[in-house]
Amino acid sequence: MTAPVPETAPLVDGYDTLLVDLDGVVYLADDPIPGAAEALDKVRADGRRVVFVTNNASRTPEQVAAALQAMGVHADPEEVLTSSMAAADELARMLPAGAPVLVVGGDGLRRPVAAAGLQPVAKADDGPVAVVQGFSPDLTWALLAEAAVALRRPDVPWIATNRDATLPSPRGPLPGNGAMIQAVVLATGREPTVIGKPEPQLLQAATRMTGAKQPLVVGDRLDTDIAGANRAGLPSLLVLSGVSRAADLRAAPPEQRPTYVGDDLSAVLKPGVAYGEGHQ
């Protein structure tokens, strides 16, 4: 339920935890978004928690935290929850310990799979009993081909960390995990089970992780961050510093409408940002 916030009070006053997306909210590619670090410092100084919840599967929590710190954003690995971690947890519930899993991605996906007690493999001939796919800038055609071969077996489940078609960048949207997944879909005729936003599992895991009673989801994408918040029954703030723009917001279907909208992450410190058409 959306917390009642007086019109003259900062938005964050109604919440105890921010579940913050990264790409398009805190940074664009390797460039910090102005004001984001200062806003997060203020939120923490007021005694509220911040958890970075990202669909991006290319980095480990340690790498994410180090990259944020290099940009001047305070972050600890324990404050980072990636879709790779949620996907590995799902696989660990499905499979016996030590089971081979074909990892279509980089270290940001391989390490959580190994930490979950499973065996990451890179070839269909290694006998994988599942395939997991997540974004990596180094993803090759050869690894996509191994996935296509492994998925010819109908009993091999296919887990995707997310299906974001694009990633935000200073040069405009670039191909994301969803674009890479589509290559395998077209080659196999199969569809993956998606773990990351807009599915609710990642945000639900973040809520459990923090023990939040009144969390607010902050994201830049209507089709993932905001839709995921609505599916999880959580209020949300759309920031216009990433992928979704004002024109997209005006055309958004009900399931993608945010509770609040602001120009950037500093909106959490401002009053009067109610949108009124999202989750209530």
Written account of the structure:
This protein has 280 residues and is α/β, with parallel strands linked by helices. It has two domains: 11-55 and 197-269, HAD superfamily/HAD-like (Rossmann fold), CATH 3.40.50; 94-194, HAD superfamily/HAD-like (Rossmann fold, 3-Layer(aba) Sandwich), CATH 3.40.50. Helix content is 31%, strand content 18%. The chain is built from nine helices and 15 strands. The strands form four sheets. Strands 5-4-1-13-14-15 form a six-stranded parallel β-sheet. α4 links the parallel β6 and β7 (119-121). α3 (83-94) packs parallel to α4 (107-115) and α5 (141-150) crosses α6. The longest helix is centred in the first third of the chain and has 12 residues, at 83-94. The radius of gyration is 19 Å and the shape is globular. The chain starts with 16 loop residues before the first strand and ends in an 18-residue tail after the last strand. Residues 276-280 have low confidence and may be disordered.
Keywords:
280 residues, six-stranded parallel sheet, five-stranded parallel sheet, 2 domains, 31% helix, alpha/beta, globular, Rossmann fold, disordered C terminus, 9 helices
* Content of β-strand: 15-25%
Rough outline: globular
Helix segment tally: 9
Please describe the biggest sheet, giving its number of strands, its sense, and whether it closes into a barrel: 6 strands, parallel
Helix/strand-derived class? Answer: alpha/beta
Physical arrangement of strands within the biggest beta sheet: 5-4-1-13-14-15
Under the CATH scheme, which architecture of the largest domain would be assigned?
A: 3-Layer(aba) Sandwich
The value of Rg in angstroms is 19 Å
Topology pattern, helix = H, strand = E: EEEHEHEHEHEEHEEEHEHEHEHE
